[in-house]
């Protein structure tokens, strides 16, 4: 697999695209897949239209971003473009608009995309040579619904999916995704990739359990709101368990996300904020009668170094490296002055890579937040 990465902070769409194309090594017709990640500074529809015209022989996917990761480091308010090309790999895409509506049509479109990539879910072991990338609008709270729909169509819990919820520079106003110029603010772009190349997904947690847990005694699943913890108002119960004041908890929410443990795996969910009635909004669905771990910050640089080491051991000569970093972690790195050390780790490990700041992450069937996930493919 061959990857190229281009980045610009030019705010003029015409000049920005000219800059990006000048950085690429090959003509536009070379690339099977082009993905761009754009700050909310840009007119997303206009950007999608122009890039679709230029890369007319490619699948062109657009995602609004909360920040970018390139060899230039961790940056904000820019435009990042990455490409994928390999003659033995087949790629198809589908835009699922209005996720909550038209389930039959969505199913048919996803089945058609599977066929286009020559992926047959009835083939034994098809999960070994195929996977999916998903980019979902980050403010619609539809990630769990979308994942359930995709896995119902594919029909295999072993099928691998890596996803990101689109962001908008931490404004939480409007996010966008697009496929070949068609945009959505309430949908998702789903890519199917059928390849002979070795690939692997990675999940990185920079938070660890404190040993303290919370019992969710009442919640509004649909709206991702916790109504009671330990039979008390969530703000009161959470602060008591941590041994801090309510004000301190509110001011340090990013330092203490919650974790759902399945087997030996912890999946993180962020605290979106407390309401005036002391209820708690979350970034993922939380079910009543579930027990969640209170987490605390781990040694961030050491965790990132371990991740890079594992990736490099698995792929001595990687051809495609893509990081999805939750925007909460992106902000946390900035506050801790860790942009430099972590970007240096990436640059020292990989000759080519990219990533962006998301509003949520998907790892197979799980929707998470405050997590880093990544895809690596062999050259």
How would you describe this protein?
The chain has 379 residues and is of the alpha+beta class. It is 26% helix and 37% strand. The chain has 9 helices and 25 strands. It has helices at 13-23, 44-54, 103-116, 143-154, 234-242, 246-251, 300-314, 327-335, 339-349, and strands at 2-8, 33-38, 59-64, 68-70, 73-75, 79-85, 90-96, 130-136, 160-165, 177-179, 182-184, 188-194, 199-204, 207-220, 225-229, 258-262, 265-269, 271-274, 280-282, 290-297, 318-326, 354-358, 361-363, 366-368, 372-378. The strands form 4 sheets. The protein has a 7-stranded antiparallel sheet, covered by helices on one side. A 6-stranded mixed sheet has the order 1-6-2-3-10-11, covered by helices on one side. A 6-stranded mixed sheet has the order 5-4-22-21-25-13. Helix 3 crosses helix 4 (143-154) and helix 7 packs parallel to helix 9 (339-349). It is globular and about 60 Å long. The mean pLDDT is 96.
What's the pLDDT, averaged over the residues?
96
Structural class: alpha+beta
Helix content: 25-40%
| Shape assignment | globular
Largest sheet: 7 strands, antiparallel
End-to-end span in angstroms?
Answer: 5 Å
The amount of beta strand, in percent, is: 35-45%
Number of DSSP strands? 25
Task: Indicate the low-confidence ranges by residue numbers.
Answer: none
Q: Enumerate how many helices there are, as a single number.
A: 9
If you compute it from the alpha carbons, what radius of gyration comes out, rounded to the nearest whole angstrom? 20 Å
The spatial strand order of the largest sheet comes to 17-16-20-14-15-19-18
